[in-house]
Amino acid sequence: SSALDQGYSAHFYFRKDFIWSVSTASYQIEGGWRADGKGLSIWDKFAHTPLKVFNDDNGDIACDSYNKIEEDVAILKQLKVTHYRFSISWSRVLPDGTTKHINEAGINYYHRLVDALLAANIEPHVTLYHWDLPQALQDTGGWENEAIVFKFRDYADLIFSRFGHKVKFWITINEPYNVANIGHGYGTAAPGILRPGTLPYIVGHHLIKAHAEAWHLYNDTYRASQKGIISITINSDWTEPRNPYKQEDIDAARRVLQFYIGWFAHPIFNGDYNDIMKTVIRERSLAAGLPKSRLPEFSLEEIKRIKGTYDYFGFNHYTTVLTSPVNYGKLQGAGLIADRTWLDSGSSWLKVSPFGFRKILNFIKKEYGNPPIIITENGISERGPFNLNDIHRSYYYEKYINQMLKAYLLDDVDIRGFTAWTLMDNLEWATGFEERFGLFYVNRSDPNLPRVRYVPYRSSKPKTVVTKQEKQLNANSYQNKFKMQSQASES
Ligand code: BGC
């Protein structure tokens, strides 16, 4: 059985040890923003700045998970997940971001959570950084200042040493792309810096180095005794040429993809920034009269140190965009639109386009050397009046999981796990509580913030996920999976 088995038959066909998980992030659910010695994070500050978050919502209380471990674990049990992905709030354990002062009350909260999960037979999958940098570190330059690389490593060191005997699944950083672009380019997320152009690339550079240092630390110091796995979570849409017969549109799709998934995946999986990014950014920088490229360079030693710092490909995916070339705006020189026939969601950027999931999984397999992949987020939002009948979300998950199944069964993509975003409706960053991605509804008009399961839509008959023709076309991959499946069930 699995988190998402109600209404689907698909899960049967994945690996026996498949991870079925659901995800949250500290700032989005915890609340307790000043409880028991917690320091402030950049999100506390951002959300307390008028007009930054829709409706001036903030995470002061959020889902009050800081005080609701029992409730959260109870709903995880209801979902029958094998794993739970959550993040640690850096400023809850290190109020000023440095190890000079450790907040034991904060450490203790995560111990109680991890212990409750393990007692419920649910494996913790822990993200070290899901966007809530300690404000004290922002005050000394945050991700723009290279000193952050070793601050992050020290923080990781503390967490591995305190939790590594219990936690076996780690993520260093969630979505470096969004940290760099949204936080430091558009400024619509904390720290809210509007400096597109050079700054996102500097921030991205330090994020990659920080990740690599944390990975090496784990690898050298903790792996042998703690025996866990650690990686980074990279997000990307799939890019589809607006007109698949037009070379310019095809080129635009390739370009945008290299600026998106490729920005972080290429240095970590293949070594160094990809050639498309290097060439395009350099040309544009020189054309703008700059003395050199806006994209920083890695030294040869750095390239070597960063390459291979992964145990799996942690991947967040939600949607697809259509690409065609334009000469203005975005550095990649491409316009991004959605197809008007794709179903909507509660988020402007998210359209239901499941075919792109299979395509980008195949892209990862080919481009990055067939790594084991854990989907660390996938899901859909609603907004406006709420309805407990979860037809829209059930439809989305069914279609996306079936595309993932095809990638696994037919295309031999090494998919090890799937994580739904998100456990319960929570603070959807700058759009506040308005956009709801949860598998559980949180009734915000009740001070107890009760979690109520949305009712998944069950199709009357199990769907035919893979057609006869598809099975024939991909006979090798398909038959192998069945061998594995029957061997696993014999043993
Ligand atoms: C983030 C989540 C966010 C979700 C939906 C991802 O970008 O990791 O924190 O809530 O997508 O927007």
From TrEMBL:
GO BP annotations listed: carbohydrate metabolic process
GO molecular function: lactase activity
One Pfam short name: Glyco_hydro_1
Annotated active site: 377 (nucleophile)
Keywords per UniProt: Glycoprotein, Glycosidase, Hydrolase
Domain of life where this protein originates: Eukaryota
Subunit structure: Homodimer.
Protein name: Lactase
Source organism per UniProt: Monopterus albus
